[in-house]
Amino acid sequence: MKLVRHNITIEGYLCLFIVISLGFTGIISYFAMLSDNRILKLWKEAFVGLFSVYVLITMYRRRITYTTIYSLLVLIGGYVFYIIYNISIGIPTELIFYQCKNDLIVWVFAVCLYAFLQGMSDSEVYICAAKILNIVIGLGALNAICGIIQVLFPMLFLDILGFNGAWGAGQGVMLFWSNGTIRPIGLQMGFVPYATLCFFCFVIIWHNHILDYANKKKYSLLGLFGIAIVLSNYYTATVGFFIFLVLMFICFVLRHKLHYSYREFLLVAFVVHILIFSIFAYTTNAYDVYEWVANYSPDKAYTSIYGRVLAHLSIMESVTKNLDTIVFGVGFGVNGAYDLFKSSLLAVVGGFATDSSYSYLLSNYGLTGIVLFVAAALYWIDVNSKKDRLGVTYLLLYLLTVDFFFNNIFSNFPLNFLIIYLVTLNMRLLKVDIASLPGSGDHHAKIKIHDHE
Description:
Layout: H1 10-23, H2 25-35, H3 38-41, H4 43-61, H5 66-88, H6 93-118, H7 122-152, H8 154-161, E1 177-178, E2 181-182, H9 191-207, H10 215-231, H11 235-257, H12 262-283, H13 288-294, H14 298-319, H15 323-328, H16 357-385, H17 392-400, H18 415-429
Antiparallel strand pairs: 1-2
Helix pairs in contact: 1-4, 1-7, 4-6, 5-6, 6-18, 7-8, 7-9, 7-10, 9-10, 9-11, 13-14, 14-16, 16-17
């Protein structure tokens, strides 16, 4: 089926430009540090800010919806409360500003993007979704190829960037060595966003119902991303990758052999992820699993488990000192703080690393932040699973279980923006009746009409 190509407004091209820009964030960061250009260093904040202002102005002209107004008021009101709370407990103004820059702008962007998509026609949002998916997959494949080359020729890669150590802080990107090999970064700023991007692309290709690749192209891309994930040397993405494959096998057995419905399979998948959540929660909040793994692989146990257990227990101890800190956190930047008085913004000045979503939320926002995040994720999982056309159900389950205790999605740029794109797009596509879309015109993506039972 072909769709009529409608005139996509400037907002649509702004969205696509953001996606293209996110694919080359490592290159931009690298040149920003080389040139010491402050504009380049803050390019994403400036662009997201301008986009949000433009969308709000556009929506005002279209009569902004009460849902958007309510969402923005609740969001800003919540942050005003947290700002007052942090001021009252003596958190420096610089840290408060830096925290709002990191978090508030992301959530405002999410609300504005959702409002923008609501203002598009069904055919426009469908074409926009196909374009965005093609760009994400294309840039993901380019990242995967670059990452594989970096693994095969690590010294050449280091020579090109001019690195002479394990860290690349001065160049705007960070490199690590693990088990005698480099952790590739593709075109990103580090190995975490690179490997996570490859995993996201693998899930999108496998599960999306927008792009219908020929089998040869589809399985070639799946093979490329699968190899990239395994070679990434990033165990969180690798574990998530193999869990996804196991779930797809279970899905095949339940639906094609035992004739379960898709919703029944999702219930099974949800139970599996609750078990995974419990295992990882115990693994990163007690030393028992670390000590057991250390008997077989001391290096992996130390790098993957020990540091997180130490940070989680220490942050938990600081948070549980009184009722206020339990509910609202110990304050912005108390843990995981960056030295705002150094140009690199990379030197930790105190506290413990908040390199997991769990520790980040617990330290900065307390139990309130964790409850709100988990509740929101569960709500999005429930809503999107009813007609998941992009695979976001699996991505949200991954972020809430596998990723929650081992990686910080809030600081994982550009994947934090990418998941916002995918979730908001899928929620808008829930209202699209694909079969009723006009059937003439030129469209570059083949469409596969396939909704869940």
